[in-house]
Amino acid sequence: MNTIEQLEEQLAKPSAELIADLSKMDGDIIILGVGGKMGPSLARLAVNAIREGGASKRVIGVSRFSNEEARRELEEAGVETISCDLLNDEELKSLPRVQNVIYMAGNKFGTTGREYFTWAMNAYLPGRVAEKYKDSRIVVFSSGNVYPFLPVGSGGANESIVPEPLGEYAQSCLGRERVFEYFAHQNGTPMTIYRLNYAIDMRYGVLLELARSVNEGRAINLSMGHANIIWQGDANEMALRCLTQCSSPPSIVNVTGPETMSIRWAAKELASRLGKEVLFEGQESDTALLNNASKSHQLFGYPRVSMLQMIDWTAEWVKAGGHTWNKPTHFQERKGKF
Ligand SMILES: NC(=O)c1ccc[n+]([C@@H]2O[C@H](COP(=O)([O-])OP(=O)(O)OC[C@H]3O[C@@H](n4cnc5c(N)ncnc54)[C@H](OP(=O)(O)O)[C@@H]3O)[C@@H](O)[C@H]2O)c1
Question: What is 4-201+230-257+289-303's CATH topology?
Fold first, then answer.
């Protein structure tokens, strides 16, 4: 995998199960906050699944489209686009009524110093959206950050672990969940809360950050010594299939890969492929932010792209000087300050 075209093609290949799920499902799909890191590939995946299943459904992508090129590419791929600032109530009200909603809008980085904005985006806007789409089913993107750090040998937090978010970003993510949950109770709206940890694309993500550090001879801090990752194509596929799991009160589905990944191990694997020495600083902590997504694997099957495949692809991408986005995950953060 060396080019953006190959990457986009890989991300947008639907499984037979996704094709079958979307073929059976009534109504069109609207993706709110489509313009970010995951939305464009999720929208293309949905279009391909619908096309291959011979169904006729619209896929509508909504964002401010601060990146106009992303909008043009979506239109070319068969996604209808609407430019809208969801925080503007008039613009939100003017959006079409659609049966299936994927809610991806949110704010993380830059929270420190502008906490009020993160709370408005992550905890106030969900109420406005839940009211507008009370007759739809809604998949709500959330984050594994709502869980407390757990011992690295624990297997990670499953859906029964009580949230204990650290810092205002994670607290506002729980706020988003609770506000949606309130409206699910109030209006009977079926929803799935989708708690994701670290999607991997070649252009951003935990593995890219490790590979670049190795390649540039920068030391890797080990204090967040373990993490969970999942191929973005698999994460997107599960998000769309979560439409089949919506209920009121909302169901909760953790989404990530099956492994508790050791950062030390992953960095060494990348280093051997890049022909470099790896430098470490610090030591692994006893705890980490860990998500146990066994339930999603039971529901949807294991991710189709394996950990070593992601490592191979990432090393090849970095070696070839592939295009990257300047969007670090800050997965090392242990104080919840983003
Ligand atoms: N990527 C991951 O590994 C990961 C992990 C855990 C959780 N998540 C969550 O999953 C969701 C999707 O992830 P992502 O990485 O694609 O997030 P992202 O890059 O932050 O994308 C979200 C997009 O929403 C749009 N948006 C923000 N404010 C808006 C507004 N007021 N009106 C309309 N659109 C707005 C923005 O696009 P425009 O500028 O075009 O409006 C933004 O790029 C996010 O909520 C994120 O917190 C992601």
Answer: Rossmann fold (3.40.50)
